[in-house]
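Action item from last meeting closed. Structure (311 res):
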């Protein structure tokens, strides 16, 4: 089996941070004198969105990176923004100066994920969602899924035999299947194909221009999102009828005391798939790459896992 280790550059651009404060920074006269990273902002409002979408986004980012380095400014999807792609810059934003930054998303992404998703919320509602998500992923809760996750991993490996693959794509399929299992438990088998079909159309529009007219990517994605929400509503109502207790994420969201609406549940399920999938697939891809390149480390990891199994 040959493995292709290259993650598309678009995915490896570590984080895109679009900040309201940055917007103000761009606007205020005083701040115009402040140093900003190199780069260009393009046309008013439209910025460089057309350049981004008139070609493969990887090419857009690669040419910017080549020209301006790992930190550069641009203007896409209606927001002035700074793109970062180096570990040092990510550490600066996420660790050393995290108090100066606030995560926000382009308006199109907010509509795709759903405005009541955890990423767009604050205060008590945010704290409640965080608690509900966390309690579905503590070791005690995921214990019962381990053997099913192992089956998914084995099936995935088997399906790779003799094929030339793009590792990141395969890892995305794997993480999607694990995400569905963690969210819907055993119910996922019944709905897997429909959920997959809708989610895959939805995610194609995540970074699309928010033009909602028939035929646009955004329009197709919004339709898929609507269908996804209908499937979720069906699963929720079936569960309500059976009155059974579930220890998966949907079970956590539906916990009686928490009182989330169907819409809030749908927004957050789509949100968690979005949060968990590409991130984890990317980490897995890097792990495979480095284990493939370092047989000694692979051997040490294999031995320590075997020892764990024998314990
Ligand atoms: C290696 C994989 C992952 C990486 C690198 C990653 C990275 C991140 C980052 C940078 C944030 C923003 C943090 C902040 O706002 O301060 C975040 C938020 C979040 N992630 Fe992950 N994540 C990963 C895996 C997952 C998984 C598997 C889940 C599924 C449960 C998940 C669920 C979430 C949620 C729900 C949030 C929003 C948290 C909040 O607003 O309070 N992530 N993640």
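Sequence:
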């Amino acid at each position: 089996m040959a493995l292709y280790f290259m993650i598309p550059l678009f995915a490896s651009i570590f984080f895109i941070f679009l900040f309201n404060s940055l917007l103000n920074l761009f606007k205020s006269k005083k701040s115009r004198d402040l140093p900003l990273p190199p780069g260009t902002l393009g046309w008013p409002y439209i910025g460089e969105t057309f350049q981004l979408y008139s070609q493969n986004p990887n090419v857009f980012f690669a040419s910017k990176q080549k020209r301006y380095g790992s930190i550069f400014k641009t203007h896409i999807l209606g927001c002035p923004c700074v793109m970062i792609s180096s570990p040092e810059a990510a550490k600066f934003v996420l660790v050393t100066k995290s108090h100066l930054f606030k995560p926000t998303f382009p308006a199109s992404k907010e509509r795709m994920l759903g405005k009541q998703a955890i990423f767009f919320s604050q205060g008590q509602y945010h704290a409640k969602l965080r608690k509900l998500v966390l309690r579905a992923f503590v070791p005690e809760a995921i214990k019962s899924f381990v053997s099913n996750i192992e089956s998914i991993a084995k099936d995935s490996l088997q399906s790779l035999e003799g094929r030339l693959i793009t590792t990141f794509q395969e890892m995305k399929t794997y993480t999607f299947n694990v995400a569905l299992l963690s969210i819907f438990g055993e119910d996922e088998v019944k709905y897997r194909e429909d959920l997959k079909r809708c989610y895959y159309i939805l995610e194609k529009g995540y970074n699309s221009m928010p033009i909602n007219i028939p035929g646009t990517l955004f329009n197709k994605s919004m339709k898929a999102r609507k269908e996804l929400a209908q499937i979720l509503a069906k699963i929720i109502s079936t569960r309500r009828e059976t009155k059974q207790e579930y220890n998966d994420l949907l079970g956590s969201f539906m916990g009686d005391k928490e009182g989330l609406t169907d819409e809030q549940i749908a927004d957050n399920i789509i949100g968690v798939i979005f949060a968990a999938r590409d991130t984890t697939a990317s980490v897995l891809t890097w792990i495979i790459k480095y284990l493939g390149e370092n047989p000694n480390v692979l051997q040490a990891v294999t031995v320590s896992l075997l020892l764990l199994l024998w314990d």
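Note appended to the action item: Residues 103, 118-119, 130, 133, 137, 272, 275-276, 279-280, 283 surround protoporphyrin IX containing FE (CB under 6 Å).
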